[in-house]
Amino acid sequence: MEQVSANRSHGGTQGVYTHQSTATGTAMTFSVFVPDHAPGAKLPVLWYLSGLTCTHANVTEKGEFRAACARAGIIFVAPDTSPRGDDVPDDEGYDFGKGAGFYVNATQAPWATHFHMRDYIETELPALIAAEFPADMARQGITGHSMGGHGALTIALRNPGRFRSVSAFAPIVSPMHCQWGEKALTGYLGADENAWREYDACALIEDGARLPDLLVDQGEADNFLHEQLKTGLLVMACRKAGIPATVRMQPGYDHSYYFISSFMAEHVAWHAERLKA
Amino acid sequence: MEQVSANRSHGGTQGVYTHQSTATGTAMTFSVFVPDHAPGAKLPVLWYLSGLTCTHANVTEKGEFRAACARAGIIFVAPDTSPRGDDVPDDEGYDFGKGAGFYVNATQAPWATHFHMRDYIETELPALIAAEFPADMARQGITGHSMGGHGALTIALRNPGRFRSVSAFAPIVSPMHCQWGEKALTGYLGADENAWREYDACALIEDGARLPDLLVDQGEADNFLHEQLKTGLLVMACRKAGIPATVRMQPGYDHSYYFISSFMAEHVAWHAERLKA
């Protein structure tokens, strides 16, 4: 692992790091904010998975999470959204290929070679974080935005007990039922929809997966709400499964970081409450 | 004035606007955050002047001012740092020409045609803000970063009584005594240093100008501290003039928005205290 940059911020260190990933077969870049802490102390970890077109940089620059994480003593990890590099295949659309890994392990050519974001986020990066940072991996929370909200929900649902706290900003709640998801899942996994279910939060819940509880914020003025995000499907799935979900529709807010940053401190506080020692 | 964008954020509206400026003879873009407020209510205004290479966008995206401004009920105005456009002359350096207006009225060719940032910030834009936004122009504060800190200090010093509160992040305190300033003042104003003094905070104080009080944050790990910013000159000038200046050297912090955003909420609170009705 190599440090790309380190900036003191909000009484902690905002770092950017790169490493050679075995999961993706590429270099991968991610950011980590570490609050000041007592020598030897281990801090809880909050994962933030980003949305379409984003890298680690978007939330790192615009997310307004550092003040809240410094206050609560939480490490904040922001991975990239796909493998990158000249030998990584891409698509002309912004919603597939680079910047759009959808947190799956691709099985279809030519994507299967590098697009193993599920393994990267579920297995490889956590091991690296545990080895390189003062992280208490028994206290992890996960959140994300849009495609990253989908990532946070599905990863938490498939790994019961790993995350004490789960939240999302404007998540894609059922990729099987929206154009973004249909395109990505077909491309990465093939046409057999049975292979899609483990990458669909609503299908995972329907198939028996559970979360301890859940916080979701969703802007009512979000252009993608009705065609792509379909928050109502998650509300119904949680209700049916008895998952206590706090889903807040936020009047006037859109899909941008102006929305995310507005509610970031509340999400961090919500995770902090559940990540206490 | 035309609205470029409007995003709901932190319980207010973050807008970006463009208008045809008579001061610069170009289109100028700026951003304004307006917290929610009672109909007919007028809110105090905090000006933020940006540094070299920046537009309105840097602080708007990375400044982390909205939560604090929403809490305090303060309008936050972020202008551009120079005229822009194909017919505006430029320099190869990042520290002169476009993105580097230094808040002066240029007198030298070819800059004198468009580079009237002093008139733009001191006269034209305030009139537009007063006309178009629910702004109480009797309650204004001003701050800025680096070149924008220089702008904030010099504009406040030249306009006694206009600003109830003045602060700066890592300001250039004496452009007459650093390479950035010498290049810019020579280029925009010519070689006669007498013409420079009204654009130099330390010289203005030496010549009798005063501020009510002052808050400055300066990172100790700022690469530009010793060669360009020279905070100590301002400390000495204020001490000699009896200006109560709170100048805080912040260990480990650099010149970036990771530094600015760390202390933004404290600056907004400091202005809010002085801008109360």
UniProtKB/TrEMBL annotation, chains A, B:
Belongs to the esterase D family. Serine hydrolase involved in the detoxification of formaldehyde. The keyword Cytoplasm does not apply. GO terms for molecular function: S-formylglutathione hydrolase activity. It comes from the Bacteria. InterPro entries: AB_hydrolase_fold (IPR029058), Esterase-like (IPR000801), S-formylglutathione_hydrol (IPR014186). It is an enzyme of class 3 (hydrolase). It catalyses: S-formylglutathione + H2O = formate + glutathione + H(+). PANTHER family: S-FORMYLGLUTATHIONE HYDROLASE. This is S-formylglutathione hydrolase. Its EC number is 3.1.2.12. Keywords: Hydrolase, Serine esterase. The keyword Cell membrane does not apply. The gene is fghA.
